[in-house]
């Protein structure tokens, strides 16, 4: 029996064309699949890069910033020794006031010195309008119950101060300021004189710059494995 393809050569040509078309389509589909997968791999690489870039050095989290060290270095041991002579002498010098304020922040009691400073500023007011505005701010910030920076005052002192601000005068906060001053002088000031930062200044030592702490966003093992699984695509 003769070969049908010899009798009908057009069948052979058609079959060849179909086969070639199938190969071309298969190749095209494969290329499209690879292209579709590439953005995913690129996203994975970008994701890994982003995760790694999250690791950064942060110096601002330390009290030993260059600016603070420079300020500390400008205080001579002789000047620091004078701070230990009296609490009043410490507060009368700007560098001493700054150092004591920083110390109170480490004890979470900076509201005391902030109140004292606000009272000093209040007494510099020139007009009745200025007195009234500052008195209201000080009262709402430091005196009234549940104030954001409420200072520790006895009941009598708080009552007298509350009455004084109704028609404020220069001495409206004197009783409250005196109470807070004595509290700092008898409690916080002695601890400040025993603190390492103060002793370092007196002895002429500047604390060495703290080691940089690396703060980064830690990604999970699953995230890393998810990224690593696509390394072969690269």
UniProtKB/TrEMBL annotation:
<keyword id="KW-0734">Signal transduction inhibitor</keyword>
<feature type="domain" description="RGS">
    <location>
        <begin position="86"/>
        <end position="202"/>
    </location>
</feature>
<dbReference type="GO" id="GO:0009968">
    <property type="term" value="P:negative regulation of signal transduction"/>
</dbReference>
<dbReference type="InterPro" id="IPR024066">
    <property type="entry name" value="RGS_subdom1/3"/>
</dbReference>
<dbReference type="Pfam" id="PF00615">
    <property type="entry name" value="RGS"/>
</dbReference>
<dbReference type="InterPro" id="IPR016137">
    <property type="entry name" value="RGS"/>
</dbReference>
<dbReference type="InterPro" id="IPR044926">
    <property type="entry name" value="RGS_subdomain_2"/>
</dbReference>
<dbReference type="InterPro" id="IPR036305">
    <property type="entry name" value="RGS_sf"/>
</dbReference>
<protein>
    <submittedName>
        <fullName>RGS18 protein</fullName>
    </submittedName>
</protein>
């Amino acid at each position: 029996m003769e070969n049908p393809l010899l009798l009908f050569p057009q069948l052979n040509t058609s079959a060849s064309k179909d086969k070639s078309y199938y190969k071309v389509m298969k190749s095209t589909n494969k290329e499209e699949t690879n292209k579709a997968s590439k953005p995913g791999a690129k996203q994975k690489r970008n994701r890994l890069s982003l995760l790694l870039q999250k690791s950064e050095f942060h110096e601002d989290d330390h009290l030993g910033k260059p600016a603070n060290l420079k300020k500390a270095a400008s205080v001579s041991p002789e000047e620091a020794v004078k701070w230990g002579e009296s609490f009043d002498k410490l507060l009368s010098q700007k560098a001493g006031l700054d150092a004591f304020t920083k110390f109170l922040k480490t004890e979470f009691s900076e509201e005391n010195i902030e109140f004292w400073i606000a009272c000093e500023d209040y007494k510099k007011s020139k007009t009745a309008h200025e007195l009234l505005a500052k008195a209201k701010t000080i009262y709402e910030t430091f005196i009234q119950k549940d104030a954001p920076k409420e200072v520790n005052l006895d009941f009598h002192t708080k009552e007298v101060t509350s009455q004084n601000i109704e028609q404020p005068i220069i001495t409206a906060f004197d009783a409250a300021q005196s109470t807070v001053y004595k509290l700092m002088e008898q409690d916080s000031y002695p601890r400040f004189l025993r603190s390492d930062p103060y002793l370092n200044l007196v002895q002429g030592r500047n604390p060495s710059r703290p080691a940089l702490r690396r703060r980064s966003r830690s990604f999970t093992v699953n995230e890393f494995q998810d990224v690593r699984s696509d390394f072969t695509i690269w």
